[in-house]
Amino acid sequence: MTEPMTESPIETPSFNDFNLPEKLNIALHNMGYETPTPVQQKAIPLATSGHDILASAQTGTGKTGAFSVPMIAHLMNKPGSTALILTPTRELAMQIQVVVDDMIKKAPMLKSVLLIGGESMPKQTQKLQSRPRIIIGTPGRINDHLRSAVFLNKVDFVVFDEADRMLDMGFSIQLDEILKFVPSNRQTLMFSATFAPAILKFARTYLNDPQRVEIEPDKKSADNIDHKIVKVDSSYKYETLLEELKKREGSIIIFAKTKVGTDKLAQKLKKDGFKVNAIHGDLHQHKRKRVLENFRDSKYRILVATDVAARGLDVPHIEHVINYDLPQNPEDYVHRIGRTARAGAQGHALCLLTPHDRDIWERIQRLIGFEGGDNQFQGKAKPKKKGSGGKGGFGKNKRPFNKRFRVKGKPEGGDDNRGGERSGKKPHRKGSGKPKPSGEGRSEQPKERRGEGKVVAKKSSGKPSGKPHGKPSGKPAGKPSGNKKSFTKKPSGKPKSKPAKKD
Description:
The chain has 503 residues and is of the alpha/beta class. The protein folds into 2 domains: 15-214, Rossmann fold (3-Layer(aba) Sandwich); 225-405, Rossmann fold (3-Layer(aba) Sandwich). It is 29% helix and 13% strand. Strands 3-4-2-5-6-1-7 form a 7-stranded parallel β-sheet, sandwiched between helices. Strands 8-13-12-9-11-10 form a 6-stranded parallel β-sheet, sandwiched between helices. α3 packs across α4. The two termini are 44 Å apart. Residues 6-10, 217-221, 372-461, 478-492 and 494-503 have low confidence and may be disordered.
């Protein structure tokens, strides 16, 4: 693998200098493509020369054009060839198809097909039978089609877009299976937000002596994004969000951690009078598509989303990105804030940080370099409830988060209720001590042990657990007394039947 390139092999002011097919040049001109972006200036000449490429570029840098332009030029010059584009999400695949279809308007011999989940398999199969030369899709759905059809035998141009995200989502097995059906004599372009070790290992396996293109250091954020954090106690998190929303104008996307949390947050905002909708992976494809179209058309101002929308969502009028919950992976933060400040516009990013966000926030800071200078985050802690503590834990030379942020006897508030687990000890729960009599003289019901998925009866100690109400039986709890026929039910110390294991 060659060393990272520091300069473009061809300094070009326009797409005409790439020696592209005339029909493609006309389409690019009609689309408003005039001056290539840095990633396009570096990647297009290398790709049109036949090199494999490993490129690192952040969102909003024009990387879709960086691989679509040389791909279409390749297909126009080789009538019998086919191209395959793999993406991690449906939304990104749909966005790419829109761009590609605009580029091939002047080339009727080229057709594209979209293979994504949530759409009819038979309809997609019917489209495959028309032999499209550009196949765009997600690994899971393409792998599904390969079980019943062979349609990748003429592919000689492969694109992995957002390769790091595909690996993070666990698509490595599907990618391995798909590439078994693709001829080894092919050209491969791989685009990723970072050069993570997993990406480099994947590239060594499937790329042939790739040219490495790095547009900007991984630790730099967009200069035209105004960053802000607000340190807040979990119990004041939603109220802080409301205050921030009232201060802001324009379209807003709010990122939450879970699908359930996304729906709940959207419902609460609706009740408080905001025009809002939600999107996540559990929505049917037609619903997801309608939600995005309505947001693009400004039919509502706020979109609450999981990370499914962090990549591939291209809505130019998004002015604010609010991280209600931080992502699990620092790289996903880069893609979240990339939803704003598109095409050189000014954008704003806000993070609501609670005490248990400290570790992941430090990892994000190390990745994107928000330390010192103009990017030094300034935030004020919201007032805490009595007993919940004061400031603590953000920034340099400050004490780490400690017990002042915890409430004894119950986990910290918020969406994930993880308080108390950060110390390594299980949170205190009511009834965790010795069993108490129920008040009706019955023995305690068997409890389900966490993580085992079945009911395990507690062993009797041979002595009653306490003074039961009513007439004592004179025998330990859980054992029948007197005539067995007097029992209409099995003793409660033993389970009636073995329940099904948990998923």
